[in-house]
Amino acid sequence: MMEELESIGHEFYGKGKIGFPSLMKLKLEDTRSLKKWKEIHHGDFAVHKQLEVLNCRSITNLPKFPSLSDLLLENCHQTILSSDIPSGLQNLYSLKELHISKCPTLVSFTVEKLGSSLKNLRILSCANLESLPMRLHELQNLESLSIHGCPKLVCLPASRLPASPCSLSIMECALLEERCAEGGEDWPKMEHIPEKHITRVELCPRFELKLQVCAAVSLG
């Protein structure tokens, strides 16, 4: 069964010297015991564009995807995006979309080794995420940044956000929302972004109900 799979070896690629030369999309899902995914040395997935890794909590390395443009990581091990990021995810010069979701062990992560072509970064429901990449400002092609459901995230990186984003969305991040409100401590880091959506969640003590107040700021 796939849930019991612990390693993907050379047999996965067949007898060819290049692994799946025409494969464009791949989803790896519910392989919760998988720890190692070995690579070959002649271009594992040379033209691969989209990769989804879902509910693979133990895997700590990936093969090379030199043409990858869309990457979804959901409920994965934090090592995948640590400072010692696997070689398979380094120098992804074609990567445009990075979606990180429901990774409960993720406390921090890095982006500088991914390449600088990233346009859209989405971080959703990472309950223990405490900090964003310190070098986030180096993503000069970034157009959209979304941060939702990260209650322990306290602040934006010390340096301001990249100059390029057209939109910023922050939801269900109570600590971060307060700092990113107009006049807050992190406002100077993001005030240059034309479209900002900050949804604040407040508690009404009288009725003990959660009320959402959505603030959309557009500067033209």
From TrEMBL:
GO biological process: one example: defense response
Highest taxon, organism lineage: Eukaryota
Name of the featured protein: NB-ARC domain-containing protein
InterPro entries with a match to the protein in the record: LRR_dom_sf
Keywords: Plant defense
SUPFAM superfamilies per UniProt: L domain-like
Keyword NADP carried by entry: no
